[in-house]
Amino acid sequence: MSEEVAIRLPEPADAADLLALLARLQTESDTFCLANADETISAAQEADQLDQIQQSSRHLVLVASLGDELLGVCSIVPTPQGNVGELGIAVEKAYWHQGIGTALVDEALYWAETASSLVAIGLTVQTRNTAAVKLYEKLGFTRTESPTETVTTAEGEHVSAFEMVYHLPVDLD
Description:
By secondary structure, the protein is an alpha+beta fold.
Protein backbone atom coordinates (compact mmCIF):
# COMPACT_ATOMS: atom_id res chain seq x y z
CA MET A 1 0.00 0.00 0.00
CA SER A 2 1.48 3.36 -1.00
CA GLU A 3 1.29 6.44 1.16
CA GLU A 4 -0.73 9.47 0.14
CA VAL A 5 0.29 13.08 0.41
CA ALA A 6 -1.49 14.74 3.33
CA ILE A 7 -2.40 18.43 3.44
CA ARG A 8 -2.51 19.48 7.08
CA LEU A 9 -1.81 22.10 9.69
CA PRO A 10 1.75 21.77 10.98
CA GLU A 11 2.17 20.85 14.61
CA PRO A 12 4.74 22.59 16.81
CA ALA A 13 6.68 19.29 16.66
CA ASP A 14 7.08 19.90 12.88
CA ALA A 15 9.02 23.13 13.48
CA ALA A 16 12.54 21.81 12.78
CA ASP A 17 11.38 19.90 9.70
CA LEU A 18 9.51 22.98 8.43
CA LEU A 19 12.60 25.16 8.82
CA ALA A 20 14.64 22.54 6.92
CA LEU A 21 11.99 22.43 4.17
CA LEU A 22 12.03 26.22 3.82
CA ALA A 23 15.83 26.17 3.51
CA ARG A 24 15.64 23.50 0.78
CA LEU A 25 12.89 25.35 -1.10
CA GLN A 26 15.00 28.51 -1.27
CA THR A 27 17.74 26.60 -3.09
CA GLU A 28 15.40 24.89 -5.57
CA SER A 29 13.49 27.76 -7.13
CA ASP A 30 14.22 31.31 -8.19
CA THR A 31 10.53 32.19 -7.75
CA PHE A 32 10.46 31.41 -4.01
CA CYS A 33 11.92 33.91 -1.58
CA LEU A 34 11.34 34.17 2.15
CA ALA A 35 10.71 37.51 3.78
CA ASN A 36 13.28 38.11 6.52
CA ALA A 37 15.38 35.19 5.20
CA ASP A 38 18.45 36.77 6.80
CA GLU A 39 17.04 36.28 10.29
CA THR A 40 17.84 33.00 12.00
CA ILE A 41 14.97 31.39 13.88
CA SER A 42 15.25 28.41 16.20
CA ALA A 43 13.00 25.38 16.08
CA ALA A 44 11.58 26.42 19.46
CA GLN A 45 10.74 29.90 18.13
CA GLU A 46 9.16 28.37 15.02
CA ALA A 47 7.12 25.97 17.18
CA ASP A 48 5.85 28.92 19.21
CA GLN A 49 4.92 30.80 16.01
CA LEU A 50 3.07 27.77 14.64
CA ASP A 51 1.09 27.55 17.87
CA GLN A 52 0.18 31.26 17.66
CA ILE A 53 -0.78 31.00 13.97
CA GLN A 54 -3.28 28.25 14.75
CA GLN A 55 -5.13 30.69 17.00
CA SER A 56 -5.44 33.39 14.31
CA SER A 57 -8.29 34.07 11.87
CA ARG A 58 -5.92 36.02 9.59
CA HIS A 59 -2.86 33.72 9.47
CA LEU A 60 -2.56 30.21 8.06
CA VAL A 61 0.25 27.73 7.47
CA LEU A 62 -0.40 24.40 5.78
CA VAL A 63 2.09 21.69 4.91
CA ALA A 64 2.06 18.82 2.45
CA SER A 65 3.59 15.69 3.89
CA LEU A 66 4.35 12.20 2.69
CA GLY A 67 4.65 10.14 5.84
CA ASP A 68 6.99 12.09 8.10
CA GLU A 69 8.57 14.05 5.21
CA LEU A 70 7.42 17.63 4.60
CA LEU A 71 7.47 18.45 0.89
CA GLY A 72 5.42 21.61 0.50
CA VAL A 73 4.15 24.63 2.38
CA CYS A 74 1.43 27.22 1.88
CA SER A 75 0.81 30.31 3.96
CA ILE A 76 -1.57 33.23 4.20
CA VAL A 77 -0.44 36.29 6.13
CA PRO A 78 -2.31 39.57 6.53
CA THR A 79 -1.18 42.54 4.46
CA PRO A 80 -1.06 46.08 5.87
CA GLN A 81 -4.72 46.47 4.80
CA GLY A 82 -5.53 43.91 7.51
CA ASN A 83 -8.50 42.27 5.81
CA VAL A 84 -6.52 41.02 2.79
CA GLY A 85 -4.19 38.05 3.06
CA GLU A 86 -1.09 37.35 0.98
CA LEU A 87 -0.68 33.81 -0.31
CA GLY A 88 2.69 32.10 -0.44
CA ILE A 89 3.29 28.58 -1.70
CA ALA A 90 6.21 26.32 -2.53
CA VAL A 91 6.61 22.61 -3.24
CA GLU A 92 9.87 20.69 -3.51
CA LYS A 93 10.95 20.37 -7.13
CA ALA A 94 10.80 16.55 -7.06
CA TYR A 95 7.03 16.87 -6.46
CA TRP A 96 6.17 19.58 -9.01
CA HIS A 97 3.30 18.91 -11.44
CA GLN A 98 1.69 16.29 -9.21
CA GLY A 99 -1.25 18.38 -7.94
CA ILE A 100 0.29 19.15 -4.55
CA GLY A 101 0.42 22.91 -5.12
CA THR A 102 -3.19 22.87 -6.29
CA ALA A 103 -4.25 20.91 -3.20
CA LEU A 104 -2.40 23.29 -0.87
CA VAL A 105 -3.89 26.44 -2.43
CA ASP A 106 -7.37 24.89 -2.63
CA GLU A 107 -7.27 24.01 1.07
CA ALA A 108 -5.96 27.49 1.95
CA LEU A 109 -8.83 29.10 0.01
CA TYR A 110 -11.32 26.82 1.79
CA TRP A 111 -9.92 28.02 5.12
CA ALA A 112 -10.10 31.64 3.95
CA GLU A 113 -13.75 31.22 2.94
CA THR A 114 -14.90 29.32 6.02
CA ALA A 115 -12.69 30.28 8.96
CA SER A 116 -10.88 33.54 8.26
CA SER A 117 -11.83 37.17 8.78
CA LEU A 118 -10.30 38.11 5.42
CA VAL A 119 -12.16 39.55 2.40
CA ALA A 120 -9.58 38.68 -0.29
CA ILE A 121 -6.36 36.77 -0.92
CA GLY A 122 -3.68 38.35 -3.06
CA LEU A 123 -0.28 37.40 -4.39
CA THR A 124 2.50 38.59 -6.64
CA VAL A 125 3.58 36.14 -9.34
CA GLN A 126 6.54 36.37 -11.67
CA THR A 127 5.39 36.72 -15.28
CA ARG A 128 7.73 33.89 -16.33
CA ASN A 129 6.16 31.47 -13.82
CA THR A 130 3.47 30.30 -16.25
CA ALA A 131 2.68 27.10 -14.31
CA ALA A 132 1.84 29.13 -11.21
CA VAL A 133 -0.24 31.63 -13.20
CA LYS A 134 -2.28 28.75 -14.67
CA LEU A 135 -2.76 27.24 -11.20
CA TYR A 136 -3.98 30.52 -9.73
CA GLU A 137 -6.33 31.20 -12.65
CA LYS A 138 -7.74 27.65 -12.40
CA LEU A 139 -8.53 28.26 -8.73
CA GLY A 140 -10.30 31.58 -9.35
CA PHE A 141 -7.60 34.23 -9.00
CA THR A 142 -7.74 37.13 -11.44
CA ARG A 143 -5.09 39.59 -12.49
CA THR A 144 -5.49 43.00 -10.87
CA GLU A 145 -5.47 46.35 -12.65
CA SER A 146 -2.08 47.11 -11.10
CA PRO A 147 0.68 47.55 -13.67
CA THR A 148 3.39 44.94 -14.08
CA GLU A 149 6.17 45.50 -11.57
CA THR A 150 9.75 44.41 -11.20
CA VAL A 151 10.73 42.11 -8.35
CA THR A 152 14.19 41.01 -7.31
CA THR A 153 14.92 37.32 -6.91
CA ALA A 154 17.08 35.92 -4.11
CA GLU A 155 19.94 35.88 -6.66
CA GLY A 156 19.51 39.60 -7.33
CA GLU A 157 17.91 39.18 -10.76
CA HIS A 158 15.21 41.70 -11.70
CA VAL A 159 12.13 40.04 -13.24
CA SER A 160 8.64 41.23 -14.16
CA ALA A 161 5.70 40.23 -11.99
CA PHE A 162 2.07 41.12 -11.51
CA GLU A 163 -0.56 40.92 -8.80
CA MET A 164 -3.48 38.51 -8.69
CA VAL A 165 -6.43 38.45 -6.30
CA TYR A 166 -9.08 36.01 -5.11
CA HIS A 167 -12.17 37.72 -3.71
CA LEU A 168 -13.78 35.75 -0.93
CA PRO A 169 -17.58 35.32 -1.00
CA VAL A 170 -19.43 37.86 1.10
CA ASP A 171 -21.66 36.36 3.79
CA LEU A 172 -24.88 38.37 3.78
CA ASP A 173 -26.35 36.64 6.86
